[in-house]
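Records of this kind hold a single protein each, on a pair of labelled lines. Below, a sample record shows both lines together.
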Amino acid sequence: MERATQDETALELLVHGVGGTTPEEMLGDPRTVRISGDNTAAVFRRTEDADAEQRPDDYRGKPVPEAYVWCNLTSGNGSRALWLLLLPFMVVNLAHWMRPTSRHRRPLVRTYGLLVRLTGLTLTVLLVAAACEVALDLTAWQCAGTPRCAADRAWLGFLATDDAGRGGWWSQPGRRLALAALLPAALTGLLWYLSHRTWSAYESQQPLPHKPEVEEEEATRTALSRPGFWYGRRLVARLRAAHTAAGLLTVAAAVGASAARHDRRPGGPALLDILGWALVMTLVLGGGAVVWVVCRRGRSEHKLDRKLDRALVRGLPLAALALLVLTFLYAGWTRPGWRSEGRLPGDATFGGIAIAQGLLVVALAVVAHSLYRTSPDARTAIRGLGGPAVAMLSCALGGVMSGGGAQRVADWLDGTHGSIDGPPVLLTWQASVIPPLLVVVAVLCAWLGLRTLQRKRREMTKVTLDYPGEPKDSARTRRIAGTRARAALTDRAPLLVGIISAVTLLFGAGALIGAWLTEKVPAQAAQGAPDVVEGAGETSQALGSWLIGFGFILFVTWGRRAYKDASARRTIGILWDVGTFWPRAAHPFAPPCYAERAVPDLTWRMAAWTRATSATGGRLVISGHSQGSVLAAAAAWQLRPSVRRRVALLTYGSPLERLYGRWFPAHFGPAALTSLHREVDCWRNLHRPTDPIGGPINLRGACGPQVDRAALKDPLAYGRTETHPLPAPIHGHGGYQADPAFAEERARLLARLKAVVPSPRPAAPEAVTPAPADPPDTAG
């Protein structure tokens, strides 16, 4: 005999959005208690609801509210401020997940992932090479080898040489380079440690075990439902070993290449010449092994892969470290008459990295376009080229950070003396293209500003129609219309990103060609040209040098401020809320993925509740705001189909379609969202025209004509009324709970919990095509 679910205890699970909040605010009660979880992420209840399961009679007809608080995953202690320096790694990791939706093109899908992983590898080499440029070239080679520069730096005294080329034991160039190489080697070790530690702290949670569902066409089922999607331990460990080895090999190449080049000169010791060639060949073999490891294996999502390639994970970094130590011994060998002159071969290094990144981005664009053509969708960002565009921006960010650091250190060491040659010519050329790039950005911003003003004028008419019969206030109308117009700028982001990425690629190629053809900095290359060209070259070089240095200082300043200031750290946490949702699939040194902790937490909680109340067909409503709605959807996909049918979704301020659906179509595209709303019990979504992040889902639902409710008014009242005697605020992305529509939709979903088990789906309206039947439950 069937039993009505009003006799059971229902559950309402609340998930907050970006920026986080407190359980007291989420539950509307100052007295809360943690019922599960730890100091990082936990589920809370009101104190009076702590033992609700033991008092079912008190909760007949009403749910037990719970709040899942996960803000400490992204904006906790001050050490999180260091994550800001890992921004290029985070951005290239995003590019991996921006793959377009494809049908039956698995080789291209694997090629896409491979190209992004190789791009991430070049970023690691670029960062370590920049550290080598600062420590080895500018400090140990140029400044310590120039008496005038070293005289102003007392801490370089033990490394310095005099005008006759004599000095202490450490003054020989090879020994100076070996000692200075400890800094980039330590940086590589720090990145390895952070990646390993954050994996243990954030991403080691095993998802809810379940069997893979019946395989459907890739276009109709998202990979987020696969058992191993949120457990990428094996790939992260392999990539961490490969990137650590790549960093150590880069340091070894920077130290050993200069010594080997000196030993190849006529009259040098034959033994050292042989050792130099052996070192170079070993470095080449080591680099080939690193590339092989990166290419060999991608993500394994169809099963929960608990294996770990221990021999590779431990052996590859240790072998690279042993080679680095041998390189130190080789470089430290006594070489009479060896003096440091000019620069280390940094132009060839940075030039090779720039060429590799450019070719990888172009190849990635070709593959992405081919994938997009198999299943085109007008809503996809940049027509499927979002991934290549974002990968290009990650390379640009890496260039700004590496070039800015080198430029600032060179200015600090040299001052106004001009006694050292400074950073490589290519870095100066790259800095010189920043001013024209900023001009392009300024033109785009001006165009967007003009379009925003035009939209604001149109919105002023709509505001008047939305609030009829009220005395009009031009200032109030402009404020509301301006908020709506600015919120619409989010939909212009793909165009902005696409143009900036394309211009960056062109300017970067121009800088590379200019550096290789002239072998001079722009100001010197423009000498003898017309006055306008010469002045432009000098201005661009000076302004670019200042801007790239300023950009690096800005990164450091933000990190320092966030370390000391909790509010600034919270702001950075909001950035990570959006950027680190995805697992580390392309770069192991990216900031950790909080969803690999949050999604299993939510999945386990929902599965445990439905299992405990399975006798009465236990149901629940999961209510997600902003990024919390993305976590809620990801957790629902991880449930068994039989459990998923007992879950109702309430999303508000949700970026599921507006941001994730456009930028990550393979995982949140129309087909994936359609399958989700067919498989859950019900889904309702709230949005506002003043919200810059959330938007409509644009799907028809089984519990109403559409998943979306009509756009909510914001503010609730135009002027003063009896209901709103004081001016109503413009909430934008927040404050959805203050709208009566929120309470209506919440009550509507909770009322469905009182239906007889199993809950029949209401008949679809005549104008709506009935949804296909639920897929068979093969998860056990």
